[in-house]
Amino acid sequence: MTTILVTGGTGTLGRLVTERLRADGHEVRVLSRRTQPYAVDLREGGAALDAAVAGVDTIVHCASSPKGDEQAAANLIRAARGAGVRHLVYISIVGVDRVPFRYYKSKLAVERQVEESGLGWTVLRTTQFHDLLVILLQGLSKLPVLFLPAGVPDQPVEVAEVADRLTELAAGAPAGRVEDMGGPEVRTLESLARAYLKATGRRRAVVNVPLWGAAYRGFRSGGHLAPQRAVGTGTFGEYLARRYGGEQARADSGRSRA
């Protein structure tokens, strides 16, 4: 078995990837800013990063931040080249090349860095995780009225299924840009928000607000969706039922696909 470094290995996705790789018998190093023995801020790099990648065969790059991703990737790639890493696997987002959203632009730039790194590489793009959608809705529902960008669809995917796919890719040979991975259903953001409110027992008026700008147009037109790659099986309703309990969320999911 191989030695694999998982960046962001304590995060929502990285933790699951780490568990699966270890269960498969790989030696796994977890890199995060605060977890020893590989506590590294990728944006700073340095000797600690060099030590973390020394002797590593494969890196699964799950770490991400609203700021500094490109510098973090540059530092990681430099260290990986110096250590003779065989394979760099990067998790990206569907639509980074179609929706001019600032964070997406940064993810696309990192993709380009990975492709031009001189390392063997694999890039997987997925739609947004159920967990991240809930974080968004938690924030929006703090007010008495839940305001949503009008006309925006979404296609959330189960993070555990993404972890399964990344584990498979990390154990294999470099594959370049692999097929996108989307959740099983495309729904309006309003329907997802109403399902969340019902599952959590919150009462909020839902108001759809037309916005402006190229990024909004990109989301509204579905640039972040992968309807032809709806390979995920876990629905948002099933996720809500598992997280909050009850059958209503499952029923809502069933109706959305009817």
Automatic annotation (TrEMBL):
Organism from which the protein derives: Streptomyces caelestis
Domain NAD(P)-binding: from-to ranges: 8-131
GO terms for MF: protein-containing complex binding
UniProt xrefs under SUPFAM superfamilies: NAD(P)-binding Rossmann-fold domains
Pfam (any one): NAD_binding_10
InterPro entries linked: ComplexI_NDUFA9_subunit, NAD(P)-bd_dom, NAD(P)-bd_dom_sf
Name the UniProt record assigns to this protein: Uncharacterized protein YbjT (DUF2867 family)
Positions of transmembrane segments: none
